[in-house]
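User: Please predict the structure of the protein below. I'd like the answer in structure-token form so I can feed it into my own downstream comparison script.

Assistant: Understood. Taking the following sequence of 409 residues as input:
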Amino acid sequence: MTSEALAEPTDRVRAGWTAAVVLANVGVFAAWFGPIQVLLAKQSEAVAPGNKEFVFGLVTGIGAAVSVVAAPIFGAVSDRTTSRFGRRVPWTLGGALGAAAGLLVLAGAQGVALMLVGWCLVQLFGNAVLAAQTATVPDRVPVDQRGVVGGWVAVAQVPGALVGTALATVAGGIGFGYVACAVFFVLSVLPYVLRGRDTPLAVAPPPFVLRGFVRGFWVSPRRYPDFGWAWLTRFLFNVGNSLGLLYLFYYLQDEVGVPDAATAVLILTAIYSVCVLITAIIFGSWSDRSGRRKIFVIGSGLVMGVAGVILAVWPTWPGAITGAVVLGIGFGVYLSVDFALITEVLPNARDRAKDLGVINIANSFPQVIAPVIAAPIVKHFGGYPVLYLLSGVVTAVAGVLVSKVRSVR
């Protein structure tokens, strides 16, 4: 007997269901980007004013390492969950509560050790929510609707970044900023938890064997080459993106010389968000109608590469605004179409969340290596111009390599 939860979906999903999934994803990214864009940078400067770049890179890097491990593990556990509430609902609610606890730890942190504990909790449990919510798209959405629905889900990180940055900026201090992000995260998942109608897994998963469970995280690029290329290109896209965004607060403060870097980050995030949402809506729908994915992702990589060059050679406030517009245009196309492409190269239905968790390593691991690459460049090897040029080159190369995916047009 085949479980309904594992069947290829054929019924189109409604706008209310999509909105609930999008809102839950907005909560995840608000909980991540509010701290990354503003709060952790300010907190690092407060606890180590002479060594802020190192502390910020240490905390975000270790947190990202936790994310690398957490994403596929929570995905695999979600795939095996036999709760009567479904496979995804329990981890959505539990993850949001756990991440909120981590944000509250950060709110009271006065030193590096507690910052590390709090941020690792946020990354750990935030990935439980992300793994579950990402898998809902191939679980419930038919292929011919995935460009639009997957696009909305993928671009949730953009309003999430905007909401998180706004909460961090206007809440009235570092501690209140963390509390605001925690409250918003918990509230954001409730519509999906209460109305998501997650389908329970009717067929029991195979007996748990630790060796088989661990080996299951390896998806052979020889056996599944398109999955391998999809992973590599997403990894490179995120390396380029992480290099560009990691020190944005310090770039605006130290290189551009804006008087209020936190407000400047909020303004740029708002401009970037509008551009992402407009292009994502247009190109996600266009991709569904045309049945083509690769050409859009290739073009988005080249456009994002141009944004890196702009930020490198024009370190002024008008240059930063222009870079945000160009990056938003390119990233909107990338987010809306690349997620649909990835759902079409997953090896099998039983392991959707686990395999998407493996894909999510390509989102998280760049955050581990970006500080290792970026900090020496900023300090010793050319500063921000070299950093943003490198970001642009890596992103453009990622776009070109998407052409290696063969099974998707």
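That's the full token string. The chain has a mean pLDDT of 83.
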